[in-house]
Known about the structure:
Helix content is 25%, strand content 21%. By secondary structure, the chain is an alpha/beta fold. The strands form 3 sheets. The chain has a 6-stranded mixed beta sheet, with helices on both faces. Strands 1-2 form a two-stranded antiparallel sheet. Strands 3-10 form a two-stranded antiparallel ribbon.
Amino acid sequence: MTLLPSALRPASLLTAAPASTKHRPSPKEFRLGAAGRPAPVPTLLIVVFDNSGSVVSPAGSDPLANRFAEVEYAFARVARKGKPHELGAVLHFDSPTTGDVPPLAIHRANLTRLRSGLQIPPDGAGSSALLPSLRQAVTLAEAYAEHEVTVVVLSDFLLLDANPTAALAELATFPGAVHAVVLGGYVTRDAFDRRITVTSVRREDPPGAVARVVFASLVKHRPGSLVYPEPG
Length: 232
């Protein structure tokens, strides 16, 4: 699986950085689909990042922070024609942190602010606990109850909450749609409640897999939208 890091320096997820002579894909080499027209209802997408050692260490599932750039790419695609009632927010497992971004309209004027959250927070401790950020996400969802809310959690789900099973059960009760993106594919679908959509991102996945997942959540209420399938 190849992703694009926050500095837009392509590198590989789940593997060491490629040699300088190796072909390095750019965002133009994967296509997400059509963003469609603005949603007829207010929407809010909350993206939650796990920055624990099992994700960001040299042997982790995303050592070069490639997930951040792919999420940015998905936001940017929608921002071209975004409207004030279509919102995006960013949280981190160590929430609250300075890297958290409150709900903002997904349009070009706010991309810089959204981008500021698409990096490891300087005051983040690299927690493997889901519940602090999940409860922050619930607070946001309740504050925007008139919106169709989706939370996308990007993690390997090797959780260190006091009771990981209870944490995943609480995730299933989120007041909105839930999408768990399992980086590395270490945790199987059986670990999650049926109410949770689960996508595993593995080494062999093609470029843009994370961007495609987030893009799909961003456009699911947008008429005329289309998410291209992963290349075979």
